[in-house]
Structures are given as C-alpha cells and as structure tokens.
Amino acid sequence: SPCRFCLYPGLHEDLVGTHPPGAHSLVAVSVGYFLEDFVDMLCNQKLHQSWELLFHHSVVIVCFGIAVLLHQYVGFALVALLVEVNSIFLHLRQILLMADLVHTTCYRLNSIVNLGTYVVFRIATLAWMTRWLFLNQQHVPLATYTVGTVGMAIMTPMNLILFYRLLRSDFFK
C-alpha cells in the first residue's frame, strides 16, 4: 500500500530484492486467491463469459508466482496489488447490477468512485510499473524483463478496454 512506501523507504529504492515483513506472504496468498478464482471460473462460468478474466488471472499467477518462488520482485508485486483496490468498486458494481439497483444513488456514487479509483489504482499504477520496467531494464535479467514486459503489454490494453466499457456503460448509455 502507499503507506508501506512511507513506513519502508527501502522499498521505493529497490523493488527487486527489498520487501517489508509479511510482503512475501501477502503475494503468496494472492497467488492462492487468483488460483482459486481461476478454478472457480473454469468450473462455474462459460468460457465465452470469463476468458478475459481467466487470461488476466493466468498472467498474474505467472508473474506473482515468479516473485514468490524467487523471493525477488516482491516489491514490484506489491505495487501491482494496488490495482486490486479498484476491484472493491468493480465487485460492488457487479453486485448492484445483479440486485437490479442500476437506477439508484448508490449505483451512481459507486460508478463515480469506481472510475476514479480505476484511473488512480489501475491505469496510473500500470503506467508507473511500465515506466519502472523500462527505466530499470539494465538491472533486470532478460527472462524476468520479458515476463514483466509481456505481462504489462497484456494487462494495460485489457484495463484500457475495460475502462472504455465502464465509461460507455455507466456514463454514455
């Protein structure tokens, strides 16, 4: 979290080898969550409904799995977890849709907060991560750099497309 950067200044300087206590466990638990959600979607949803999220989860599982196994890039994975702050509002949006509460103040307020947190925690975080990878290319082994770059090349367009869909659905009907 942003607070971690204040409490653990070494993280700001080294996202490869430095991480606060508990960070490795947090990333490992996150891998477990994404694995469980992946299996749940495979078992309980039609592939045409969930292929994008399955793809997203696959990328996260590989990238976070590398961080967990190597005990490196845990700081970078922590930054990536900032994206999940927005998931709270994406999930609430889905719940409100399922409850047929689209025409309520609660849905409208959530739509605004959802879009704001989307820009801050998804788009800005992914842009920062891409910039960090580019600026630190010489310090990152080729295989890891390739995985990170491919991951960002997949996640960024997926998130921009979802942002467009949210904007169109909630603000430009």
Automatic annotation (TrEMBL):
Segments forming domain TLC: 1-173
Gene Ontology CC: one annotated term: plasma membrane
Main location: membrane
Cellular localization per UniProt: Membrane
Transmembrane segments: 51-70, 76-92, 112-130, 142-167
Keywords: Membrane, Transmembrane, Transmembrane helix
PROSITE patterns (UniProt xref): TLC
One Pfam family matching this protein: TRAM_LAG1_CLN8
GO biological process, one term: membrane assembly
Signal peptide: none
Superkingdom assignment: Eukaryota
Membrane topology type: Multi-pass membrane protein
PANTHER family: CT120 PROTEIN (PTHR13439), TLC DOMAIN-CONTAINING PROTEIN 2 (PTHR13439:SF2)
Protein name: TLCD2 protein
Source species of the chain: Odontophorus gujanensis
